[in-house]
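Blinded run. Sample ID left blank on purpose so nobody reads anything into the name before looking at the predicted structure. Input follows.
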Amino acid sequence: MKVLLLFMGLFISASVYTYETGASSGYTGAPGNSDCSSCHSCTPITSGSVWGGITLTRVGGSLASITANASNPMSLSFSSSSSTKFGFQLCVLPSSASSTTASVGTLSAGTSSLVQTSSTSSPARTYLNHTSSGTTASAGTATWNFNWITPASYSGGATFYVVINETDGNSSSSGDQIYLKTFSTTVLPVRWLDFSAQETNEGIMLKWSTASEINNNYFEIERSEDGLNFEFAGKVNGIGNANKISSYRFLDEVNPSRTWFYRLKQVDFDGKEEFSRTITYQSNVEQAPIVYTKGDLNQLVIKSENPARSISIFSLSGKLITKIDGNGSNQFELPQHLKGLYLVNVQIGSNNYYKKLLF
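Blinded prediction complete.
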Protein backbone atom coordinates (compact mmCIF):
# COMPACT_ATOMS: atom_id res chain seq x y z
CA MET A 1 0.00 0.00 0.00
CA LYS A 2 1.08 3.55 -0.42
CA VAL A 3 0.74 5.86 2.48
CA LEU A 4 0.52 9.57 1.98
CA LEU A 5 1.53 11.39 5.06
CA LEU A 6 -0.07 14.79 5.19
CA PHE A 7 0.81 17.19 7.93
CA MET A 8 -2.04 19.57 8.48
CA GLY A 9 -1.26 23.12 9.37
CA LEU A 10 -1.45 23.87 13.02
CA PHE A 11 -3.02 27.19 12.21
CA ILE A 12 -5.84 27.50 9.74
CA SER A 13 -6.26 31.25 9.67
CA ALA A 14 -4.99 34.34 11.46
CA SER A 15 -8.53 35.58 11.89
CA VAL A 16 -10.03 32.31 13.08
CA TYR A 17 -8.24 29.87 15.40
CA THR A 18 -5.51 27.27 15.48
CA TYR A 19 -5.77 23.52 14.80
CA GLU A 20 -3.53 22.55 17.69
CA THR A 21 -5.96 19.79 18.67
CA GLY A 22 -6.03 18.29 15.16
CA ALA A 23 -7.22 19.41 11.75
CA SER A 24 -10.48 18.46 10.09
CA SER A 25 -10.47 15.20 8.12
CA GLY A 26 -9.63 15.04 4.43
CA TYR A 27 -6.45 17.10 3.97
CA THR A 28 -3.87 14.42 3.15
CA GLY A 29 -3.60 15.02 -0.59
CA ALA A 30 -5.02 11.55 -1.26
CA PRO A 31 -7.45 11.08 -4.18
CA GLY A 32 -10.55 13.08 -3.31
CA ASN A 33 -8.72 15.00 -0.52
CA SER A 34 -7.50 18.58 -0.38
CA ASP A 35 -4.22 19.35 1.32
CA CYS A 36 -3.22 21.87 3.97
CA SER A 37 -2.15 24.47 1.41
CA SER A 38 -5.86 25.09 0.76
CA CYS A 39 -5.89 26.94 4.10
CA HIS A 40 -2.26 28.01 4.33
CA SER A 41 -0.89 30.52 1.84
CA CYS A 42 1.90 28.35 0.47
CA THR A 43 2.69 25.80 -2.23
CA PRO A 44 2.98 22.13 -1.13
CA ILE A 45 6.59 20.90 -0.98
CA THR A 46 7.22 17.49 -2.59
CA SER A 47 11.01 17.40 -2.81
CA GLY A 48 14.16 18.66 -1.11
CA SER A 49 16.30 17.68 1.88
CA VAL A 50 13.72 18.44 4.58
CA TRP A 51 11.00 16.61 2.62
CA GLY A 52 13.40 13.69 2.12
CA GLY A 53 13.84 13.47 5.90
CA ILE A 54 10.18 12.58 6.43
CA THR A 55 10.18 8.89 7.35
CA LEU A 56 7.52 6.27 7.93
CA THR A 57 8.76 2.98 9.36
CA ARG A 58 7.27 -0.25 10.53
CA VAL A 59 8.72 -0.89 13.98
CA GLY A 60 10.49 -4.24 14.13
CA GLY A 61 10.06 -5.05 10.43
CA SER A 62 10.10 -3.87 6.84
CA LEU A 63 7.46 -1.56 5.42
CA ALA A 64 7.92 -3.08 1.95
CA SER A 65 5.63 -6.03 2.68
CA ILE A 66 3.24 -6.74 5.53
CA THR A 67 1.15 -9.79 6.33
CA ALA A 68 -2.63 -9.65 6.39
CA ASN A 69 -4.68 -9.65 9.59
CA ALA A 70 -1.82 -8.31 11.74
CA SER A 71 -1.23 -5.30 14.01
CA ASN A 72 1.80 -3.31 12.84
CA PRO A 73 3.47 -0.70 15.08
CA MET A 74 4.35 2.31 12.92
CA SER A 75 6.44 5.44 13.47
CA LEU A 76 6.26 8.73 11.55
CA SER A 77 9.06 11.27 11.97
CA PHE A 78 9.77 14.80 10.76
CA SER A 79 12.75 17.06 11.46
CA SER A 80 13.45 20.72 10.78
CA SER A 81 15.69 23.28 12.43
CA SER A 82 13.36 26.11 11.40
CA SER A 83 10.48 25.33 13.76
CA THR A 84 9.56 23.70 17.04
CA LYS A 85 5.89 23.12 16.28
CA PHE A 86 4.65 20.57 13.75
CA GLY A 87 1.39 18.88 12.82
CA PHE A 88 0.30 16.07 10.49
CA GLN A 89 -2.53 14.05 9.00
CA LEU A 90 -2.36 10.59 7.44
CA CYS A 91 -4.61 8.05 5.74
CA VAL A 92 -4.13 4.68 4.03
CA LEU A 93 -5.78 3.72 0.73
CA PRO A 94 -5.42 0.91 -1.82
CA SER A 95 -2.75 1.74 -4.38
CA SER A 96 -5.32 2.15 -7.17
CA ALA A 97 -7.65 4.36 -5.10
CA SER A 98 -10.05 6.87 -6.63
CA SER A 99 -11.77 9.84 -4.98
CA THR A 100 -14.48 7.54 -3.57
CA THR A 101 -12.27 4.64 -2.37
CA ALA A 102 -12.53 3.71 1.31
CA SER A 103 -9.59 3.32 3.68
CA VAL A 104 -7.85 -0.02 3.91
CA GLY A 105 -7.00 -1.49 7.30
CA THR A 106 -7.54 0.19 10.67
CA LEU A 107 -5.57 3.10 12.13
CA SER A 108 -5.24 3.17 15.91
CA ALA A 109 -3.58 5.60 18.33
CA GLY A 110 -2.90 2.76 20.75
CA THR A 111 -1.58 4.14 24.04
CA SER A 112 -0.05 7.28 22.49
CA SER A 113 -1.33 10.67 23.69
CA LEU A 114 0.32 12.41 20.72
CA VAL A 115 -2.04 11.11 18.03
CA GLN A 116 -5.76 10.61 17.52
CA THR A 117 -8.11 9.34 14.82
CA SER A 118 -10.99 10.94 12.94
CA SER A 119 -13.24 9.69 10.15
CA THR A 120 -15.55 10.55 7.28
CA SER A 121 -18.52 8.54 6.03
CA SER A 122 -18.51 9.49 2.34
CA PRO A 123 -16.12 8.03 1.42
CA ALA A 124 -15.57 5.82 4.47
CA ARG A 125 -12.08 6.86 5.51
CA THR A 126 -10.14 6.99 8.75
CA TYR A 127 -7.47 9.62 9.39
CA LEU A 128 -4.68 9.92 11.93
CA ASN A 129 -3.88 13.39 13.33
CA HIS A 130 -1.76 15.06 15.98
CA THR A 131 -3.21 16.02 19.35
CA SER A 132 -2.43 19.28 21.17
CA SER A 133 0.38 17.52 23.05
CA GLY A 134 1.68 16.04 19.80
CA THR A 135 2.64 19.33 18.15
CA THR A 136 5.74 20.19 20.14
CA ALA A 137 9.04 19.14 18.56
CA SER A 138 12.02 18.24 20.73
CA ALA A 139 15.28 19.57 19.25
CA GLY A 140 13.49 20.16 15.96
CA THR A 141 12.21 16.57 15.60
CA ALA A 142 8.74 15.15 16.08
CA THR A 143 7.87 11.45 16.14
CA TRP A 144 4.35 10.07 16.13
CA ASN A 145 3.73 6.38 16.92
CA PHE A 146 0.56 4.49 16.01
CA ASN A 147 -0.74 1.07 14.91
CA TRP A 148 -2.01 0.01 11.51
CA ILE A 149 -4.01 -3.23 11.53
CA THR A 150 -4.02 -4.90 8.12
CA PRO A 151 -7.36 -6.34 6.99
CA ALA A 152 -8.05 -10.06 6.89
CA SER A 153 -9.63 -9.97 3.43
CA TYR A 154 -7.29 -7.78 1.38
CA SER A 155 -4.04 -8.35 -0.45
CA GLY A 156 -2.10 -6.06 -2.77
CA GLY A 157 -0.60 -2.60 -2.75
CA ALA A 158 -1.48 0.18 -0.34
CA THR A 159 -0.39 3.80 -0.03
CA PHE A 160 0.12 5.96 3.05
CA TYR A 161 -0.74 9.58 2.24
CA VAL A 162 0.94 12.03 4.62
CA VAL A 163 0.77 15.80 5.01
CA ILE A 164 2.98 17.69 7.45
CA ASN A 165 2.80 21.32 8.52
CA GLU A 166 5.95 23.04 9.69
CA THR A 167 4.49 26.11 11.38
CA ASP A 168 6.19 29.39 12.24
CA GLY A 169 3.92 29.83 15.27
CA ASN A 170 2.50 33.22 14.31
CA SER A 171 -1.17 32.06 14.48
CA SER A 172 -1.54 33.02 10.83
CA SER A 173 -2.02 31.10 7.61
CA SER A 174 1.16 32.69 6.25
CA GLY A 175 4.73 31.63 6.91
CA ASP A 176 4.04 27.88 7.27
CA GLN A 177 5.52 25.10 5.13
CA ILE A 178 3.33 22.22 3.95
CA TYR A 179 4.92 18.89 2.90
CA LEU A 180 3.22 16.07 1.01
CA LYS A 181 4.69 12.57 0.85
CA THR A 182 3.56 9.01 0.14
CA PHE A 183 4.86 5.63 1.28
CA SER A 184 4.11 2.27 -0.30
CA THR A 185 3.65 -1.24 1.05
CA THR A 186 2.21 -4.58 -0.07
CA VAL A 187 -0.19 -6.66 1.99
CA LEU A 188 0.85 -10.25 1.38
CA PRO A 189 -1.82 -12.79 0.49
CA VAL A 190 -0.19 -15.63 2.44
CA ARG A 191 1.37 -15.61 5.88
CA TRP A 192 4.02 -18.33 5.81
CA LEU A 193 4.82 -20.61 8.73
CA ASP A 194 7.08 -23.68 8.28
CA PHE A 195 8.58 -25.26 5.15
CA SER A 196 10.57 -28.52 5.29
CA ALA A 197 11.79 -31.49 3.23
CA GLN A 198 12.41 -35.09 4.25
CA GLU A 199 13.42 -38.31 2.51
CA THR A 200 10.95 -41.12 1.83
CA ASN A 201 11.14 -44.39 -0.09
CA GLU A 202 9.44 -42.70 -3.06
CA GLY A 203 11.42 -39.45 -3.13
CA ILE A 204 11.45 -36.20 -1.14
CA MET A 205 8.36 -35.15 0.81
CA LEU A 206 7.86 -31.37 1.05
CA LYS A 207 5.65 -30.01 3.82
CA TRP A 208 4.59 -26.43 4.48
CA SER A 209 1.87 -24.48 6.28
CA THR A 210 0.38 -21.01 6.32
CA ALA A 211 -1.10 -19.01 9.20
CA SER A 212 -3.57 -17.19 6.94
CA GLU A 213 -4.40 -16.88 3.25
CA ILE A 214 -6.07 -14.26 1.09
CA ASN A 215 -7.10 -14.87 -2.51
CA ASN A 216 -4.68 -17.83 -2.71
CA ASN A 217 -5.19 -19.83 -5.91
CA TYR A 218 -2.31 -22.33 -5.88
CA PHE A 219 1.33 -23.09 -5.05
CA GLU A 220 3.97 -24.02 -7.60
CA ILE A 221 6.83 -26.13 -6.27
CA GLU A 222 10.20 -25.26 -7.79
CA ARG A 223 13.42 -27.29 -7.45
CA SER A 224 17.06 -26.52 -8.23
CA GLU A 225 20.35 -28.39 -8.33
CA ASP A 226 22.49 -25.32 -7.59
CA GLY A 227 20.17 -22.98 -5.65
CA LEU A 228 20.18 -20.47 -8.53
CA ASN A 229 18.38 -21.99 -11.51
CA PHE A 230 14.92 -23.32 -10.56
CA GLU A 231 12.54 -25.51 -12.54
CA PHE A 232 8.88 -26.44 -12.15
CA ALA A 233 8.37 -29.57 -10.03
CA GLY A 234 4.63 -29.59 -9.33
CA LYS A 235 1.50 -27.73 -8.28
CA VAL A 236 -0.79 -27.81 -5.23
CA ASN A 237 -4.08 -25.91 -5.01
CA GLY A 238 -4.52 -23.34 -2.25
CA ILE A 239 -7.50 -22.92 0.06
CA GLY A 240 -8.33 -19.42 -1.19
CA ASN A 241 -9.16 -17.50 1.99
CA ALA A 242 -8.44 -18.71 5.51
CA ASN A 243 -7.76 -17.22 8.94
CA LYS A 244 -6.46 -20.48 10.37
CA ILE A 245 -3.41 -22.69 9.94
CA SER A 246 -3.49 -24.61 6.65
CA SER A 247 -1.10 -27.50 5.94
CA TYR A 248 0.15 -28.82 2.59
CA ARG A 249 2.43 -31.57 1.26
CA PHE A 250 3.96 -32.59 -2.07
CA LEU A 251 6.02 -35.66 -3.00
CA ASP A 252 8.87 -34.92 -5.41
CA GLU A 253 9.89 -38.21 -7.01
CA VAL A 254 13.59 -37.47 -7.46
CA ASN A 255 16.81 -39.13 -6.29
CA PRO A 256 16.92 -38.45 -2.53
CA SER A 257 20.62 -39.35 -2.27
CA ARG A 258 21.81 -35.92 -3.32
CA THR A 259 21.34 -32.21 -2.55
CA TRP A 260 18.26 -30.30 -3.78
CA PHE A 261 17.04 -26.73 -3.31
CA TYR A 262 13.31 -25.94 -3.07
CA ARG A 263 11.08 -22.88 -3.01
CA LEU A 264 7.33 -22.25 -3.32
CA LYS A 265 5.69 -19.76 -5.65
CA GLN A 266 2.28 -18.70 -4.34
CA VAL A 267 -0.10 -17.40 -7.03
CA ASP A 268 -3.28 -15.36 -6.40
CA PHE A 269 -6.49 -15.69 -8.40
CA ASP A 270 -5.58 -12.38 -10.06
CA GLY A 271 -2.11 -13.65 -11.07
CA LYS A 272 -0.02 -11.91 -8.41
CA GLU A 273 2.92 -13.98 -7.20
CA GLU A 274 4.97 -14.32 -4.03
CA PHE A 275 7.91 -16.63 -3.24
CA SER A 276 8.66 -18.47 -0.02
CA ARG A 277 12.16 -18.76 1.38
CA THR A 278 14.46 -21.33 -0.25
CA ILE A 279 15.25 -24.47 1.71
CA THR A 280 18.04 -27.01 1.14
CA TYR A 281 17.57 -30.77 1.26
CA GLN A 282 20.66 -32.89 1.95
CA SER A 283 20.56 -36.66 2.13
CA ASN A 284 21.65 -38.36 5.34
CA VAL A 285 23.02 -41.20 3.21
CA GLU A 286 26.59 -40.60 2.20
CA GLN A 287 27.44 -41.21 -1.44
CA ALA A 288 29.34 -44.43 -2.06
CA PRO A 289 33.06 -43.71 -2.66
CA ILE A 290 34.88 -44.42 -5.91
CA VAL A 291 37.69 -46.96 -5.34
CA TYR A 292 40.48 -47.65 -7.84
CA THR A 293 44.18 -48.56 -8.07
CA LYS A 294 47.10 -46.82 -9.67
CA GLY A 295 50.92 -47.05 -9.73
CA ASP A 296 51.31 -50.64 -11.01
CA LEU A 297 48.35 -51.67 -8.81
CA ASN A 298 50.33 -50.97 -5.62
CA GLN A 299 48.34 -47.92 -4.54
CA LEU A 300 44.63 -47.78 -3.65
CA VAL A 301 42.83 -44.45 -4.06
CA ILE A 302 39.50 -43.55 -2.42
CA LYS A 303 37.52 -40.72 -4.02
CA SER A 304 35.11 -39.45 -1.38
CA GLU A 305 33.96 -36.22 0.25
CA ASN A 306 35.17 -37.54 3.63
CA PRO A 307 38.41 -39.31 4.64
CA ALA A 308 38.41 -43.08 4.93
CA ARG A 309 39.04 -44.39 8.44
CA SER A 310 40.55 -47.61 7.12
CA ILE A 311 40.56 -50.15 4.33
CA SER A 312 40.42 -53.95 4.76
CA ILE A 313 41.24 -56.42 1.99
CA PHE A 314 39.71 -59.93 2.04
CA SER A 315 40.11 -62.97 -0.12
CA LEU A 316 36.96 -64.14 -1.87
CA SER A 317 36.68 -66.86 0.76
CA GLY A 318 36.40 -64.16 3.46
CA LYS A 319 39.94 -64.36 4.90
CA LEU A 320 41.36 -60.99 6.05
CA ILE A 321 44.56 -60.29 4.08
CA THR A 322 45.46 -56.86 5.40
CA LYS A 323 43.96 -53.84 7.14
CA ILE A 324 45.41 -50.33 6.73
CA ASP A 325 44.39 -47.32 8.82
CA GLY A 326 43.69 -44.07 7.05
CA ASN A 327 46.01 -41.07 7.21
CA GLY A 328 43.60 -38.44 5.86
CA SER A 329 44.91 -38.54 2.28
CA ASN A 330 42.58 -41.33 1.04
CA GLN A 331 45.57 -43.01 -0.62
CA PHE A 332 46.85 -46.38 0.66
CA GLU A 333 50.06 -48.31 -0.15
CA LEU A 334 49.25 -51.97 -0.80
CA PRO A 335 51.30 -55.10 -0.08
CA GLN A 336 53.41 -56.15 -3.07
CA HIS A 337 52.20 -59.76 -3.02
CA LEU A 338 48.54 -59.04 -3.87
CA LYS A 339 47.65 -60.72 -7.14
CA GLY A 340 44.17 -61.66 -8.31
CA LEU A 341 40.60 -60.71 -7.35
CA TYR A 342 39.94 -59.43 -3.82
CA LEU A 343 37.13 -57.87 -1.80
CA VAL A 344 37.96 -54.39 -0.50
CA ASN A 345 36.12 -52.89 2.48
CA VAL A 346 36.29 -49.10 2.88
CA GLN A 347 35.15 -47.57 6.18
CA ILE A 348 34.05 -43.92 6.05
CA GLY A 349 32.56 -42.62 9.26
CA SER A 350 30.20 -45.33 10.53
CA ASN A 351 29.48 -46.62 7.01
CA ASN A 352 31.15 -49.60 5.29
CA TYR A 353 31.43 -49.92 1.51
CA TYR A 354 32.53 -53.06 -0.40
CA LYS A 355 34.01 -53.43 -3.86
CA LYS A 356 35.71 -56.25 -5.76
CA LEU A 357 39.04 -55.24 -7.27
CA LEU A 358 41.53 -57.05 -9.47
CA PHE A 359 45.16 -56.59 -8.39
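Unblinding after everyone has recorded impressions. Residues 84 and 137 are 5 Å apart (CA to CA).
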